Amino acid sequence: MAWVSTASRDGVANLAPISFFTAVGRKPPMVSVTVGPRSGGVTIKDTLVNIRDTGEFVTNLATLPQVHSMHSSAYEFDSAVDEFEALGLEKEPSEVVRAPRVKGAPISFECVVDRIIPVGEVGVDHVVWGEVVRFHIRDDLYMERGRIDIAALPAIGRLAAEYTLVDNVFTTPLDEALLAARNDRRMERLDARPANWSPMDGPNGSPSGATAGLRR
User: Fold this and answer.
1) What distance in Å separates the CA atoms of residue 215 and residue 150, rounded to the nearest whole number?
2) Is the entire prediction scored with pTM above 0.85?
3) b or e along 169-204 (b: 16 or more beta carbons within 10 Å of the residue's beta carbon)?
4) Above 80 in pLDDT, residue 206?
5) Which helix (H) or strand (E) element contains residue 209?
6) Per-residue pLDDT tens for 101-150?
7) Sign of torsion over alpha carbons 77, 82, 87, 93
8) Which domains does the chain have, with CATH numbers?
9) Closest residue by Cα to residue 164 from 19, 16, 4, 3
10) Please, how many CA atoms are within 13 Å of residue 62, restricted to the half-sphere of its CB?
11) How many CB atoms lie within 10 A of CB 113?
12) Using 50, 70 and 90 to split pLDDT, how confident is the model at 212?
């Protein structure tokens, strides 16, 4: 999951968790983020405005130690508010783009816009392709031959209205007994809620996880 930092034309910093995030190319390295509208379903978000106006953004890897701040950055702030300051987060200066990085993020990609693609109904979604012009990787994560120690990253993902922690890795084939033992096992809940609980069942539930007052 990406935690996207941008800056407005006037230099106001913005943060947004983006669940639609992936790599789209290797030479040159490119990533994509899909930005939806504000909670009202019409107005575009500050993230997209800033990306469109400046042609730059940073994707910071979202990990468990910063999950509360990451989630809080989804709430709607006025466009004039510096969200780093509002959330008590420290900035790390970027080297190529003007948008700041999130201090403490284990991996960050400085990106310049390659293209912005409207998708579907007018104003609903925009896919942004960004060329990575600078990689920032924490020293202890960088291994020989350019590999990343992924087992040391408590990466966060999004599953509709909830989050998930990536806390295991494997290669195939797996032992048949292990597969059989896990066949009907439910995910472990880290929040101590009942196993079948879902925020989708509440009054503010939605497939995207958006609720009134949420911006991204």
Assistant:
1) 30
2) yes
3) eeeeeeeeeeeeeeeeeeeeeeeeeeeeeeeeeeee
4) no
5) none
6) 999 999 999 999 999 999 987 768 999 999 999 999 999 999 999 899 99
7) positive
8) 2-158 (2.30.110.10)
9) 19
10) 27
11) 15
12) very low
Q: What pLDDT is stored for residue 199 in this prediction? A: 80
Q: How many residues does the chain have?
A: 216
Q: What is the Cα–Cα distance from 66 to 201, expressed in whole angstroms?
A: 26
Q: Say which DSSP state 72 is in.
A: H
Output the six-digit token pair for 85: 């300051």
In this prediction, residue 209 carries a pLDDT of 44
Q: How far is CA 36 from CA 11, 83, 86, in A?
A: 22, 19, 22
Q: What single-letter DSSP state applies at residue 188?
A: P
Q: How far apart are CA 132 and CA 27, in angstroms?
A: 10
Cα–Cα distance for residue pair 28/212, rounded to 1 Å: 39
